[in-house]
Write a structure and sequence with these properties.
Helix 9 packs across helix 13. The chain has a 6-stranded parallel sheet. It has a 4-stranded mixed sheet with strand order 1-10-9-8. With 302 residues, it is α/β, with parallel strands linked by helices. It is elongated, with a radius of gyration of 20 Å.
């Protein structure tokens, strides 16, 4: 089967009633983009004060529970921390599933396991609901600027309904397969990033030790086969030992743990990913839990 792919333009999207659960560094601006595009937005956050702050800044309304937020909505979005957080906002008497109307769709932007995506998809189908796993790439800057990339798994009919709304904060989106495919694709994304950041760290470190002008080196090699988003966007801050510009090490280790667990299930061999995960554990021991992922270079320059 050929799964749907699209560059996004939300100008023709039907205005819908939506809820957004989880107003962290990603969810807060994503929900704002939904409101800016004319959708009627209800928000929920575990810390209620943040939801009230969001409403004060953007309008809409706040709800006290995921269930209350989900009641009467066409689509319920979520972006929370991990598998357990996702279960806590979806199932149970106060979970979103208990409040959603028949035919409504739950869109999960959490980076979580494929296993929990399939579990919640099955539960949603039993209740007459749709479920799309839709992890994102692009980081906080991508969320704030509305240019995220979204990787989706689920049913084609559900995806077709939610894609124009996802366009509120995304520049690209694709349905990659059945339930869980979005999460599996996000794992591929994180595996690739881990190796790229380590290689870039070693390259910059080597250039310094060799007495080269790092800026001049990058200006040349970034025009050739070594070019990457990480090189273009992170080489300068890495060279200056500044690590407050992106995705935190704690979050990356959570994501890599998901990748490695899935690899144990499917038989994939991820030796570099496993090694880089251990390097990140060393960064944590240095006190770099909240440094961004480019801080791998700090290990080489201790």
């Amino acid at each position: 089967m050929r799964w749907a792919s699209s560059p996004l333009n939300s100008s023709g999207a039907e205005h819908m009633k939506v809820a957004f659960l989880g107003l962290g560094v990603m969810g807060y601006p994503m929900a704002r983009h939904l409101k800016d595009k004319g959708h009627e937005v209800t928000v929920y956050n575990r810390t209620a004060a943040k939801a009230e702050k969001w409403v004060a800044e953007n309008g809409g309304r706040a709800a006290a529970t995921p269930k209350a937020a989900a009641e009467g909505q066409d689509i319920v979005f979520a972006c929370v921390g991990n598998d357990d957080d996702l279960r806590s906002v979806t199932i149970g008497p106060d979970g979103a599933f208990a409040g959603m109307k028949k035919g409504a769709i739950f869109v999960d932007h959490t980076t979580a396991s494929a296993e929990v995506a399939r579990e919640l998809y099955a539960k949603a189908r039993e209740m007459g609901l749709g479920f799309v796993d839709a992890p994102v790439s692009g980081g906080q800057a991508g969320a704030e600027n509305g240019v995220l990339t979204v990787m989706c798994g689920g049913d084609e009919a559900d995806y077709a309904r939610v894609e124009p709304v996802i366009a509120s904060y995304a520049r690209a989106c694709r349905l990659l397969g059945p339930s869980g495919a979005g999460q599996l694709t996000k794992m591929v994304n994180q595996i690739c990033i881990a190796g790229l950041v380590q290689a870039l760290s070693e390259g910059i470190h080597f250039a310094k030790k060799a007495g080269l002008d790092v800026e001049a080196v990058i200006s040349v090699i970034s025009k050739g086969a070594a070019q990457s988003w990480q090189m273009e966007n992170r080489w300068q801050t890495m060279n200056e030992n500044k690590f407050d510009f992106g995705f935190a090490v704690d979050w990356m280790r959570k994501d890599l743990a998901i990748c490695l667990a899935e690899a144990r299930r499917n038989g994939a061999h991820l030796p570099v990913t496993a090694l880089v995960d251990q390097f990140y554990s060393e960064v944590q021991r240095m006190g770099g839990n909240r440094w961004d992922t480019s801080s791998l270079i700090a290990l080489l320059e201790r």
